[in-house]
Design goal:
It is built from 6 helices and no strands. It has helices spanning 2-63, 67-80, 98-103, 112-135, 138-141, 145-177.
Length: 187
């Protein structure tokens, strides 16, 4: 009879302990999910903020350039040079994209509506960087003035289009981050 008295409370205690243990697992699981959700949200915001800063920096530089005037000035220099084909425009080396390069493998964490404008902007920027390298090689300086002019016009048009794509990316990032738009609408 004493065994029956002891077994009842022991089973009740074991069941209570098991229930507490299961409840602890659920609470821990829920807290872990919340922590992961918060970390992901923080990562998304941090990534978007960093990209926004990099794109705004590029956009500021692009907005300070009057591409139509640059094309006209280049045309004038290439067509009025005394020794035709002697003038070769200087094209500065591309500054690179350190932030985008650092996060490109994790771009999928960003909201869908910001990925497209960012990828479009950076793909064009990458094309411009390759084109810039082509404009800096010796074989470019050996081209005729007409060919140099055509390439420089393409270069300036790509840069102007890059400014438009940068504006679109900035607007998408600002919408996603809940910021008011601070981007000018024209170059």
């Amino acid at each position: 009879m004493e065994l029956a008295l002891w077994v009842g409370p022991a089973i009740v205690a074991a069941v209570i302990a098991a229930l507490i243990n299961v409840a602890g697992w659920f609470i821990t699981f829920r807290q872990t999910r919340e922590i992961e959700k918060d970390r992901r949200s923080e990562k998304v915001v941090d990534t978007q903020t960093a990209l926004l800063a990099e794109i705004r920096s590029d956009l500021k530089i692009l907005e300070d350039i009057d591409f139509t005037a640059e094309i006209s000035a280049t045309r004038l220099k290439l067509t009025s040079t005394v020794a035709i084909d002697a003038y070769t425009p200087f094209v500065p080396k591309d500054s690179g994209t350190p932030i985008f390069s650092a996060i490109v493998r994790e771009i999928a964490v960003l909201p869908t509506d910001v990925i497209d404008p960012i990828v479009l902007r950076y793909k064009l920027r990458e094309s411009i960087a390759h084109f810039t390298e082509d404009l800096r090689v010796q074989s470019f300086s050996e081209l005729s003035s007409d060919r140099k002019l055509a390439m420089m016009e393409d270069y300036f048009r790509m840069k102007a289009h890059s400014a438009n794509l940068a504006r679109n990316a900035v607007a998408a990032l600002e919408r996603s981050l809940g910021l008011s738009s601070k981007v000018n609408s024209t170059v």
